[in-house]
Specification:
This protein has about 425 residues and is of the alpha/beta class. It is built from 14 helices and 19 strands. Helix 1 runs parallel beside helix 8, helix 1 runs parallel beside helix 13 and helix 5 crosses helix 7.
Length: about 425
C-alpha cells in the first residue's frame, strides 16, 4: 500500500459507537466510511417488527446521559418514562416493591427495622459521591449500607436492573453508582424500539456526508506507507489515515493481534461481559394491567411491560419482557431458565400463554461487552497500542456504562482520529 490517502477515517463496526463516531467525523468535514459486517447497522440497538410488535434485543432503557449524548448528534428520541411502582418477588410471594418512602412503609417484603435501614440505604445511594467509592466493589459497599439480609438483596436487585450485571463482587462501585444516579433522574423507553434510534443515526451519518457499508466484513488490519490497510472478506482493500475499532472486544482482539502488542489483544479477550437471558412475548391484551414491573429479590429476575409506556405494540396489545441476569462464573441450563421466566410471567400475568401472538427467547445475550471491574481499568480509547488506531464501545474506558459509554468513547475517538488525519487541534475540538 503506497501513498497516504486523503485524510479519511475507517470505522470498523456499525453499532451505536461506530455510527456516533462517524456522525461526528463527517460533521467535522472528515471523510469517513463505517464498515458493518451485518446486513444492517445498529449492533445491539437493533430491533425487529414481528406481528405488530417492536422487539428489542432484550430490555432496553435510555439513560439521561446517553439521551443527552444522542441529542448532541441531532438524534432526539421519543418515548415514555416508566414509574417506580412495582412488585418485589421473594420466595414465591409478591410484595409492593420498595422504591421510596411510601412504598418502603407499605411493603410486606421488609420488617420494621429493615424498613428503617432501607430508607437510610436509599438515601446513601442517592447522596453518596461516586468518586468516594473508587477501588471498591459494589458488594462491599452494599454490605456496608444494607447489611446481609433483605435490604442488601433489594439494593442488589436495583443495581442488576441498571447495570445488567449479576456480579456485585466484581462490579466497580464508583461507576455503578454514577450510572444508577443518572438513571434515578428518569429513563426513557423508546417508541418503535431501539432500532428506530439506530435508523436515525444511520440517516444522520449519511446526511452529514459519511458512508455506511453494510455486509462488509473487515478481516485484517495492516500498516501501510503512512496509512492503514483494511482487508475485507471480499478480497478488497481499503486505505485509511485513521481507524476506529468499534466492534465487540473479542473481534477487536482478532484485528489487533496481527499488528499490535500481544498484551493488548490478551487484555481485550479477558474482559467479562454482562449477559442476560430474555423472553419477550406479544399478547392480545394484558391480564393484569397493574402488574407492569417486577424485580426478583432472591432470584436475578426482571419483568416489565415496556409497551405500557412506549409505542411498541398495536392498539390493545402489549409486549411483555422478562429477563434473568446470568452469573459470570457458572453455566446455566437454557431450558430451565426459560421455564423460570415463563413461570414468573404466569404469576404476574396469568393466562398470558393463551393470549400470546408471538414470542422470542434468547438464552444468552451480551447486554454489555464488559463489566467495569473494581481495581481494573478498561482499555482506553487510545489503548490499541498503534498510532492512528482508536477504540470505542461500551467496553472502553469512559467512567460511564452501557450506551453512554459507547457514545462518549466514540466522541473521544472521533476527536483523536480527526487530529490524526488532519493534524488540526481546532478541528478535533469542534467534533
Amino acid at each position: 500500500m503506497t501513498g497516504r490517502p486523503t485524510s479519511n477515517v475507517a470505522i470498523i463496526g456499525g453499532g451505536m459507537a461506530g455510527l456516533a463516531a462517524g456522525i461526528r467525523l463527517a460533521r467535522g468535514g472528515v471523510p469517513v466510511t463505517v464498515f458493518e459486517r451485518s446486513a444492517g447497522s445498529g449492533g445491539r440497538a437493533r430491533s425487529t417488527h414481528e406481528h405488530g410488535f417492536d422487539i428489542n434485543l432484550g430490555p432496553h432503557a435510555l439513560y439521561p446521559g446517553a439521551e443527552a449524548a444522542l441529542a448532541e448528534l441531532g438524534i432526539h428520541v421519543e418515548g415514555g418514562r416508566p414509574g417506580t411502582k412495582g412488585i418485589a418477588l421473594s420466595s414465591g410471594r409478591r410484595h409492593i416493591l420498595p422504591a421510596g418512602p411510601g412504598s418502603i412503609l407499605r411493603s410486606g417484603y421488609l420488617g420494621p427495622r429493615q424498613k428503617v435501614r432501607a430508607g437510610l440505604a436509599f438515601k446513601a445511594v442517592l447522596e453518596t459521591k461516586p468518586e468516594s467509592l473508587r477501588g471498591r466493589t459494589l458488594a462491599d459497599w452494599i454490605g456496608e449500607i444494607g447489611g446481609d439480609g433483605k435490604v442488601r438483596a433489594l439494593l442488589e436487585s436495583y443495581f442488576r436492573l441498571g447495570t445488567y450485571a449479576n456480579a456485585p463482587h466484581l462490579l466497580d462501585a464508583e461507576i455503578a453508582l454514577r450510572h444508577f444516579q443518572d438513571g434515578a433522574k428518569g429513563v426513557l423507553y423508546a417508541d418503535g424500539g431501539w432500532g428506530r434510534i439506530a435508523d436515525a443515526m444511520r440517516r444522520r451519518l449519511e446526511q452529514e456526508g459519511g458512508t455506511l457499508r453494510a455486509g462488509a466484513r473487515i478481516e485484517a488490519l495492516a500498516p501501510g506507507d503512512g496509512c492503514w490497510g483494511l482487508r475485507l472478506a471480499s478480497g478488497e482493500t481499503f486505505a485509511a489515515a485513521g481507524v476506529i475499532i468499534a466492534t465487540p472486544p473479542k473481534d477487536a482482539a482478532k484485528l489487533l493481534e496481527g499488528c499490535g502488542p500481544p498484551a493488548i489483544a490478551q487484555e481485550l479477550r479477558s474482559l467479562i461481559p454482562a449477559t442476560v437471558a430474555t423472553l419477550d412475548a406479544g399478547v392480545a391484551r394484558l391480564p393484569r394491567p397493574g402488574a407492569t414491573l417486577a424485580l426478583g429479590m432472591d432470584r436475578p429476575l426482571y419483568f416489565q411491560v415496556h409497551s405500557a409506556y412506549a409505542k411498541l405494540a398495536g392498539p390493545g396489545t402489549h409486549l411483555l419482557s422478562a429477563a434473568m441476569y446470568l452469573p459470570v462464573d457458572e453455566a446455566v441450563d437454557p431450558g430451565a431458565v426459560r421455564e423460570e421466566l415463563e413461570a414468573m410471567m404466569d404469576g404476574l400475568q396469568p393466562g398470558w400463554r393463551d393470549l400470546r401472538l408471538t414470542d422470542r427467547f434468547l438464552p444468552s445475550l451480551a447486554a454489555s461487552c464488559a463489566i467495569p471491574v473494581a481495581g481494573r481499568t478498561l482499555p482506553a480509547v487510545d489503548g490499541a497500542g498503534l498510532p492512528g488506531v482508536y477504540l470505542a464501545g461500551d467496553w472502553v474506558r469512559s467512567n460511564t456504562m452501557l450506551a453512554e459509554s459507547s457514545l462518549r468513547s466514540a466522541h473521544e475517538a472521533s476527536q483523536l482520529a480527526a487530529r490524526q488525519v488532519r493534524g488540526h487541534a481546532t478541528l478535533a475540538a469542534a467534533i
